What we know:
- Helix content is 23%, strand content 27%.
- It is an alpha+beta fold and 78 residues long.
- The protein has one domain (3-74): Alpha-Beta Plaits.
- Strands 2-3-1-4 form a four-stranded antiparallel sheet, with helices on one face.
- A hairpin with a 5-residue loop joins strand 2 and strand 3.
- The radius of gyration is 13 Å and the shape is globular.
- The model has no long low-confidence stretch (mean pLDDT 82).
Amino acid sequence: MTRTDHANEAGVYEIVVRGQPAASTTGWLGDLEVVSLPGGDCLLRSRRIDQAALYGLVARMRDLGLVLISINRVPESE
Length: 78
């Protein structure tokens, strides 16, 4: 499998943002699991999404003014 093939596969992602999304903006979260982290940051965990959906999610986070700390692909739980 080439790097390009792997990049197009769907996966599960954990996205950490600074602070907590405002209650008025949580409607865009859809299927994302939201977890408050110690220190006030927020972990958003996706279900299985592809690269196009991930880029769309990052664009929406930018539009909402959320500060992105990290994005990590994580192993899927069975």
